[in-house]
Amino acid sequence: MTHTSARRPWYRPMVARHPDEPHRASTPLELFFDLCFVVAVAQAAAQLHHDVAEDHIGHAVPSFLMVFFAIWWAWMNFTWFASAYDTDDDVYRITTLVQVTGALVLAAGVPRAFVDSDFSLITYGYVLMRLAMVVQWLRVARTDVHPGRRAAGRRYAIAITLVQIGWVLRLVLPIPDGWLIPAFVLLALAELAVPIWAERITQTTWHPEHIAERYGLFTIIVLGESILAASLAVQSAVDEHKALGGLLWVAGAGVVIVFGMWWLYFDRPASQLLTSMRVGLFWGYGHYLIFASAAAVGAGLAVAVDYETHKAHLGGVAAGYAVAVPVAVYLFSVWLLHVRPHQRGMIVAAYPVAAALVLLAPLTPARVPVVALVVAALVAVTVVATHLERRTAVGAG
User: Fold this and answer.
1) pTM for this one?
2) b (16+ CB within 10 A) / e for 345-373
3) Sorting pLDDT into bands at 50, 70 and 90, what band is 5?
C-alpha cells in the first residue's frame, strides 16, 4: 500500500513522492486500472483479427494503430503520474475510476471504429480519461510544495485541455476523409509533445523501479491476452470439428512464440536503464511498439488458425505475415529499448538478425513454426550470452 495510516483521508495535498523510495510497488488500484484497460486491448486485437482474416489489411492496420494509440497514451500518462503523485486519497481514487470508465467507453467504441470508421465513442472515452488527468494536474498545480512542479502541473493541465479540444473538433468539423488520418497524426504528435514541454520547467519525481514494474506488468497482461486470443480461435475450430493437424502446429508454435517474447523482455531488469527524463521518455514512448506488437501477435495467431481451418479470406503467405510482422516489430523494439543500450557482443547482433529471419519465415512451407523456431533460437542465444557474461565477470573478479 502507498500509505500506512489506518484511515485513508478523503483529500491529501499532491506532494511529489521521493524517486528513491524503498519498496515502491504497484498498488491494487494500479493493477485494477491495468485489468480494465486490457478490455480495450482485447477489443482492438479482436477487430484486427477479424479485418485481417477478411483481407482488409489496408483498413485494419491504420485503424488498429490509431485505436491502440488512444489506449496506450492514456495508460502511460496515468502510470507516470501515479509514480510521482499517488496520494491514494478518496479524490485520487475517484478520479482514477473516472479514467477507468473512460477506458471502458473507449473499448465499447472499438468495433464501430473498425467497421464504420466512426471514432466518436472512442474519442469521448479518451477525452474523459484525459480530462480526469487534467483534474489531477490541477491538484498538483494547487498543492505541491515545489514552485517548479506547480508550474509544470499548470502546463500539463493547460496543454492537455487544448489537445482535447482538438480531438473534439476533429469529430464535429467537416474534415474531408482524406484528412482524417493526417489530423489524427497531428493531434497525436501534440499529445506526445505535452510532457516534453511541461517537464522543461522541472522534472516530476517518478520512480525508476516502479515505472519498470508497471510496464512489465502491462506487457505480461498484453501477452496473456495474445495467448487467450489464440486459444479461443483453436477452441472454436475444434468445436467445429476442424482438422487438428495444422491447428496443433499453430497452437504449439504460438505458445513458443509468446513464451519467447516474455523471456526476451524480462531477460534483464529495465529499471537500471531509466537514468534521466530524456532516456525515460524515449523508453516509455518506445513501448507503444512493444505493447501494440504484442497485442497484434494474438490477432495474427488467430488469423493463422482461421487459415488452417479455411475460414480466412487471404493466402497462406499473408496469414504467415500476420504473425511474422508483429513478432519482428516486437523483437526490434526490445532490442532498441532493452538490449542495444547496455549489452555488447553477439547478442546485440542476434536480435536484428532474428527479426529479419522472422520476416522471411512466411515464405517457407511451415510459416508459424519457423517463426517459433527463430524466437526459440534467439532465447537460446540470449541464455548462452548471459552465462558467458557471468563467467567472464566471475573470472575477472
Assistant:
1) 0.91
2) eebeebbbebbebbbebbeeeebbbbbbb
3) very low
